[in-house]
Amino acid sequence: MVDLMDKKALTLAVGGMILAGAAHADAQSRRDGRWETSVQLLYSSSENFSGDRQSEVDIDSDIGFGFGVAYNFSQHLSVGGEFLYLSPDYEAVFNTDESGLVSVDHEMDVFSGQFGATWNFLDKAFTPFVSAGLGWTYVDSNVADGPPVTGCWWDPFWGYVCDTYYDSYDDTSFSYSVAAGVRYELNNDMLLKATFNHTEIDGDEGFDPSLDIFKIELGWMF
């Protein structure tokens, strides 16, 4: 039910942007030679993928956030970077040497940073665009990969302090993405973007997961 409501909200937001842009389709853009930054609301769809030795992972849909910065070299071309964060629930089956098939039901943390380029098809305030990027994606399973480790240190305020922590299974992998969307610039140097993004992750152990992400962005040009 929540998943359906999220999709409806994103659909309404994108539809509103298209209608607003259509009403001002001939307005000239002022982005040439300017920087822009944005905050992003993300919706990632559920995913399922398989790896080696009967391993399998089911990732639930999730709401996340991100931010980006870019420089517009012209009305059409911009280059920049973005950082995204998601924390979806997942169920996984891993084939281990010690215990055979092991099931896990947990929540992962996903951090992704990419640099890329965007091409705006029109030199207007409202324009469709495409983009592509390269970077890295860090995935933390939040599942301990061994026994706890206790460390102690001297704190100038609290005295001698000890704490216990766990290392977890995690991985940092090369990733790349392609995206398409629409952009609308408001009269006060603010901008709105609606984007569909597909990211491929070059994982280990035969896992090469992908993420489909819908983004709504609110940005500022300066």
TrEMBL record:
Coiled coil: none annotated. Keywords: Signal. It holds the Pfam family OMP_b-brl. Residues 19-222 form the Outer membrane protein beta-barrel domain. This is Porin family protein. It comes from Seongchinamella sediminis. The lineage of its organism: Bacteria, Pseudomonadati, Pseudomonadota, Gammaproteobacteria, Cellvibrionales.
